[in-house]
Specification:
By secondary structure, this protein is an all-beta fold. It has one helix at about 345-350; strands at about 10-20, 25-30, 35-40, 45, 50, 60, 65-70, 75-80, 105, 110-115, 120, 130, 135, 145, 175-180, 195-200, 205, 210-215, 220, 230, 250, 255, 270-275, 280, 285, 290-295, 320, 330, 335, 340, 355. The chain folds into three domains: about 30-95, Tumor Necrosis Factor Receptor, subunit A, domain 2, CATH 2.10.50; about 100-175, no CATH class; about 250-373, no CATH class. The longest helix has 4 residues, at about 345-350. It starts with 10 loop residues before the first strand and ends in an 18-residue tail after the last strand. Mean pLDDT is about 80; it is low at about 1-20, about 260-265 and about 345-373.
């Protein structure tokens, strides 16, 4: 027999030690508020923090979001903040001081959340942070928005810390380079990248916010100075950082200062055989290592070192200027054409530019071997 009609789920029976006429008396044990009845040990246990236990329960109930539950709670307590916000399982009122993303705790005493101010961002943990450089933050921003890249140059733009609109983003001023740590790898970068516009490093020049190697034939001390041309009759490799890098190039007779057949990458120590239609005296200084064109109507073999080696084309051949073959590159890395004596020439090689062969050269010309293509 039972002393109570409560269900077994809400209580456990315990028999008294005395029995009358072989009949034992059982009493119903109900857990009090803030406790729960443990079915294994058949004892009442205190409700842990983060849970609540109404009277008679056999298992603690997890505290729901926007409430908090200290130890021995019989019911959850609503957060006092406005709006009431907290994660599930909160144990104290201090955990209620969390705002919706885009809001921050404007009054720590009352816990009231307010919309995030323009020029700042509020991730939802109650804090407010000034917008990072290279970002902008309109009012009520949960996270900062990266400045867009320059549509023309493809280079990242920058803003001052605290920017509140996209029109506050701009490319670095001339002579300055966009730098960041870490450098962003996509237009949707996140986190504080410590961006700034810094002077170009030595040996480089800033163009559109990006550092490029100092052009060959000049030197760049860095900063906002830009490229300075080498003194007359001297030349430098790309990336030179001081005037001492400008030297007088030297090539032997029959050769000229070339670019190693790589456009835009001149080398002061790179000499190539003089091209056909030119002669190269050789020597020291920029003016001495530049090919000189043969006199009009004449040509030369590759490697000629003087004008005496230029001559008219022999009978039966003409002087052509190829347009798609026999190119040579000057010390600036620019492609040039060369003349040659040929017996025939197709449009694919030469176009239509021809010079009639000389018929009565005076003085006697130096024969130039006919090129067969």
């Amino acid at each position: 027999m039972y002393a109570s009609n409560q269900s077994q789920s809400a209580c456990q029976c315990a028999c008294v030690s005395a029995c009358v006429l072989l009949m034992c008396v059982c009493v119903c044990m109900l857990a009090a508020s803030g406790q729960y009845l443990d079915a294994v040990s058949n004892t009442c246990k205190a409700c842990a923090a983060g849970f609540y236990c109404p009277g008679g329960t056999t298992a603690p109930i997890r505290c729901q979001p926007n409430y908090y539950c200290p130890a021995n709670a019989a019911a959850p307590t609503a957060c006092p903040t406005s709006p009431p916000l907290s994660p599930a399982g909160s144990t104290a009122a201090s955990q209620c001081m969390v705002c919706q993303p885009g809001f921050y705790i404007a009054n720590a005493t009352t816990g009231v959340c307010a919309p995030c101010k323009a020029g700042a961002f509020c991730p939802g943990d109650g804090s407010i942070t000034a917008c990072y450089a290279a970002y902008y933050c309109p009012a009520q921003s949960a996270q900062p928005t990266p400045c867009p890249v320059n549509a023309t140059t493809g280079v990242y733009q920058i803003s001052q810390a605290g920017a509140d609109a996209v029109d506050m983003c701009a490319s670095c001023a001339p002579g300055l380079v966009f730098t960041a740590s870490p450098m962003p790898t996509s237009p949707t970068y996140t986190g504080n990248i410590n961006a700034t516009c810094a002077p170009a490093p030595a040996g480089s020049v800033a163009v559109g916010g990006v550092a490029f190697p100092c052009p060959a034939g000049s030197y760049c001390a860095g900063g906002t100075q830009g490229a300075v041309a080498c003194p007359n009759n001297t030349w430098s490799n790309a990336g030179a950082s001081s005037a001492s890098a400008c030297v007088k190039p030297t090539c032997p007779a029959g050769q000229y200062l070339c670019s190693g057949q790589t456009i835009g990458a001149a080398h002061v120590d790179s000499c190539c055989a003089c091209p056909m239609g030119f002669y190269c005296p050789g020597g020291s200084g920029l003016s001495s290592v530049v090919p000189l064109a043969c006199p009009a109507g004449t040509s030369s073999n590759a490697g000629a070192s003087s004008a005496n080696q230029c001559g008219h084309c022999p009978a039966g051949s003409s002087l052509f200027t190829p347009t798609r073959a026999y190119k040579w590159y000057d010390f600036k890395g620019q492609a040039q054409t060369q003349n040659a004596c040929v017996t025939s020439c197709f449009e694919a090689l030469c176009g239509f530019a021809t010079i009639p062969a000389a018929t009565a050269p005076t003085p006697a010309p130096v024969p130039v071997p006919v090129q067969h293509w």
